[in-house]
Amino acid sequence: MSATKPVSLLDKFGLEITPFSVSPDPKFLYQTPQHKRALGQIRFTVQDRQGLAVLYGDVGMGKSTLVRKLYDLYRGDNSHETVLLTNPDPTSALQLLKRITDACDLPRKRSRLDQMQELEAFLVERFRAGKNTVLLIDEAQLLRGEQFELIRQLTNFESSTSKLIQIVLAGQNNLRSKLRLKRALLSRAMTIMTLDPLTLDETQSMIEFRLSVAGRSAPLFETEAITAVYKLSKGIPREIIKLCRSALTMAAINDLDTVPDDVVGYSSDEN
């Protein structure tokens, strides 16, 4: 007699895909009221060609996922030219500029001035063609002094009525202290938003949303388990995801049909 094939975690809980991954997958972005406000205000800044938006948030708050959501929205729209930079190289302003122009398929120039002129000509051409160019920079707290000055210079590219490039800076909370020292740049930000930890209700909704996207409609985490996840994670989305992933695995190992609170507590100890 052949051995019984182990049931996978997905099959056991009626899931089509993994619901709890820390990768910034836009389809798993649960939009709390603050996420909706941030998305809405940033999109208005871009749509109205106002130039600069800033998004702050502590580690694990979902900034990268929100930036990816913006990227997907604009990439699928023919009226936008969209560039996404993640983990910008803090080496120099010229290296940052070349990353931007490389993403726009522009030729490399030897000097920063020539490279800036090449980019400006591209932005003017895109503007005349009815395109709105968007630059999304994730992990912007990695930027340094002269790179912030480069960003400020980019905000100087404008027509008589609007900015030629819309820039979104998303970074951890130390980006805030860096920008305070760059008042000439910070004063140009038309939108400044901060992502805060989730509430208990938002934590529950986020868990249920991710399970739904993954293909499960029935409740899986018991009420006490959700409360335990919230308390242990302090409402930080990445910690919520990690706890839920570990708890789900532990529930499967113990052949449980739902996730109780003691499994969440055990998973926390393991993490």
Q: What is this structure's SSE topology?
A:
Blueprint: H1 9-12, H2 33-47, E1 52-57, H3 63-75, E2 80-85, H4 93-103, H5 112-128, E3 132-138, H6 145-154, E4 165-171, H7 174-180, H8 183-186, E5 191-195, H9 200-213, H10 223-233, H11 237-253, H12 261-270
Parallel strand pairs: 1-4, 1-5, 2-3, 3-4
Helix pairs in contact: 4-5, 4-6, 9-10, 10-11, 10-12, 11-12
Description:
This protein has 271 residues and is α/β, with parallel strands linked by helices. It has 2 domains: 27-195, P-loop containing nucleotide triphosphate hydrolases (Rossmann fold, 3-Layer(aba) Sandwich), CATH 3.40.50.300; 198-270, Helicase, Ruva Protein, domain 3, CATH 1.10.8.60. It has helices at residues 9-12, 33-47, 63-75, 93-103, 112-128, 145-154, 174-180, 183-186, 200-213, 223-233, 237-253, 261-270, and strands spanning 52-57, 80-85, 132-138, 165-171, 191-195. Strand 3 (132-138), helix 6 (145-154) and strand 4 (165-171) form a beta-alpha-beta unit. The model is unreliable at 1-5 (pLDDT under 50).
Indicate the percent of residues in helices. 40-55%
CATH first level of the largest domain: which class?
Alpha Beta
CATH topology of the largest domain: Rossmann fold
Overall 3D form: elongated
Helix-strand topology string: HHEHEHHEHEHHEHHHH
Residue-averaged pLDDT:
93
